[in-house]
Write a structure and sequence with these properties.
18 strands; alpha+beta; 21% strand; Beta-Lactamase; elongated; Heat Shock Protein 90
Length: 572
């Protein structure tokens, strides 16, 4: 640029003058009026209030709601404009309102700040009457309208649910770890879930062949579920029937649909208890579904996918634990059977020798006494002399029968196996004892599977076992009674059959159960204690198992299982 010339914008003092219209940009924004600043700050405060994740409520000294934000309205189920002028206590359950009025007056008399997170869990009430847990922090401010109280409300339902669910999972694990507990495991598990997840009734339905059967239940102490329980024990559920049946059919957890019957076949009992909602989830073992648990509530609970996912996981853990427990029980039973077999085998060798040694002198004594009695006939021997000989003869025969029983107990199986129909064994045994049973007012009912496959064995020996069980049952019952015989496939162990003999007698005391199959152990005044020991050996020789369950006063049930013919080694 030529010397002596300058831009029109150059100022003589070395500064640059602004072009027209650019002075505001250079100097920044024009200061606003105090009123505009207040308006803008109020708008900013409103924006903060409305975007807060906490519900905010402002109350005057009379307890009237002055201001709320959108989050509070959403939390309590109101429209924002519905709060104005309402009493603060409308947000509380009725049982807390009178007490809260006193607390509110005390706060305004001595206002102070109370921060969130002090562990004070309170209950709030929505417009529809439902309650939910909250935490509330308090503050206050002075205004032209007087002293105002500020409440900041947090809905802690998600946190409370998470804590409850963690506690429920912990308690379920603790139930598994309680090895000293001998009661109903299903009831304990239902209690752990129901009490900590806020349900009122719990049911466990177990898979039994092609149906679900009522296994155990739990309920809150204030509920009388006797009618529901009585009806439930008479019901069996098929696939798709009721919530438990739907779980069995689909294999997944589910929530009761609107209008769906919560408990199949028990609608009246459910109405009486006021049950309104339910969910169910599978108890899934490693190889098969074991059963289904149903939880019922008197509240109208909305479907909760997170809860169902947690219950599904718990159901899988319960199933795996029950599988492991079943395996442990089977191993324990096999160990006990092995120990019993070894004990009986050693004892068998001993008694075989004793019986053999007893048999010869007993035969000689018996025959000599018979000769003496024959010679005494027609001779003038004292009557007491003859009676003494008869007493000796009777007792010799009794000892001989014991020796014979010992020989039967010690006798080893030849290993010969022929096809045997268990149903035929049952019917032929009943031909032998049916008449004497009816004479003693004992009724026998049978439930035989017509499609039962054959087993490999000795029909006469198996008949001896059944005859012994029937005789024991009849002798245990005083007066009248009932014996039930059932044959079926073993639903727990494929490839095996079972025959069940149960009675309505007085049952077997728990102290006697571990010793029933031991030789010479008897509870009968005149028994030898060899009948069940011999039966045990026969069943074992047939590769079978024999088990007894009994509750004092409720009869006894003997369950025998045998492998089907195709499963018997060497039968092909």
């Amino acid at each position: 640029m030529p010397a002596g010339k300058r831009k029109a914008s150059d100022h003589p003092n070395g500064t640059t003058s602004a072009r027209p219209g650019t002075a505001k940009k250079a100097r920044g924004r024009v200061p606003r009026s105090p009123l505009e600043i207040l308006r803008r700050r109020a708008a900013l405060a409103d924006a903060v209030l409305e975007t807060s994740s906490l519900g905010v409520v402002m109350v005057d000294e009379a307890g009237r709601i002055v201001r709320t934000n959108a989050r509070l309205a959403q939390m309590f189920g109101y429209r924002p404009d519905e709060f104005n002028g309402l009493s603060l206590e409308i947000l509380l359950p009725e049982r807390f309102r009178d007490g809260h009025v006193r607390h509110r007056r005390g706060f305004f008399a001595a206002p102070h700040a109370r921060p969130m997170g002090l562990g004070l869990e309170l209950a709030a009430r929505r417009k529809d009457g439902t309650e939910f847990p909250v935490e509330i922090s308090l503050s206050y401010l002075k205004s032209d309208e007087g002293l105002l109280a500020l409440g900041f409300v947090m809905d802690i339902t998600p946190r409370r649910n998470a804590e409850q669910r963690l506690l429920a999972e912990f308690l379920v694990t603790r139930v598994f770890a309680d090895t000293n507990y001998s009661g109903n495991l299903g009831t304990r598990l239902l209690e752990a879930l129901g009490e900590n997840l806020d349900w009122d009734v719990g049911e466990l339905w177990s898979v039994d062949g092609d149906v679900l059967r009522y296994d155990s239940h739990w309920h809150r102490p204030m509920l009388d579920t006797r009618d529901l329980d009585a009806v439930s024990r008479k019901i069996v559920l098929s696939r798709g029937m009721g919530l438990a049946g739907r779980v069995w059919e689909t294999g997944g957890a589910c929530w009761a649909k609107p209008g769906e019957r919560l408990v199949a076949g028990r609608a009246d009992e459910a109405v009486t208890l006021g049950l309104k909602s339910a969910c169910a989830f599978p108890i899934q073992g490693e190889q098969r579904m074991i059963g289904a648990m149903v939880l019922l509530s008197r509240l109208s609970r909305e479907p909760d996918d997170t809860l169902l996912a947690m219950l599904t996981d718990i159901g899988r853990r319960i199933g795996q634990h029950l599988d492991h427990r079943h395996v442990e029980l089977e191993l324990r039973k096999q160990r006990e059977m092995l120990f019993q077999s070894e004990k009986l085998s050693a004892l068998g060798r001993l008694v075989a020798g004793v019986a053999h040694e007893m048999n010869n002198p007993l035969g000689i004594i018996s025959s000599r006494i018979e000769l003496m009695l024959a010679d005494a006939e027609g001779q003038s021997f004292p009557a007491q002399f003859l009676e003494d000989l008869r007493v000796v003869h009777r007792n010799v025969l009794r000892v001989a029968s014991v020796a014979q029983a010992l020989r039967s107990f010690a006798r080893q199986s030849t290993g010969e196996r022929r096809p045997v129909d268990l149903n035929t064994v049952v019917t032929e045994t009943l031909l032998l004892v049916g008449k004497s049973m009816s004479t003693d007012n004992v009724r026998i009912t049978i439930d035989l599977d017509p499609e039962l496959p054959r087993i490999g064995g000795d029909a006469n020996a198996l008949q001896q076992v059944l005859l012994n069980l029937l005789t024991n049952a009849r002798e245990a019952m005083t007066g009248s009674g009932e014996i039930r015989i059932t044959t079926a496939r073993d639903s727990d162990r494929p490839g095996r059959l079972r025959i069940i003999v149960s009675d309505t007698g007085p049952g077997i005391p728990p102290a006697h159960l571990p010793h029933l199959f031991e030789p010479f152990y008897t509870t009968k005044p005149s028994g030898t204690g060899l009948g069940l020991a011999v039966s045990y050996g026969i069943v074992q020789n047939h590769l079978g198992t024999i088990d007894v369950q009994s509750v004092a006063g409720q009869g006894a049930t003997f369950t025998l299982t045998f492998p089907v013919l195709e499963s018997v080694p060497g039968s092909a």
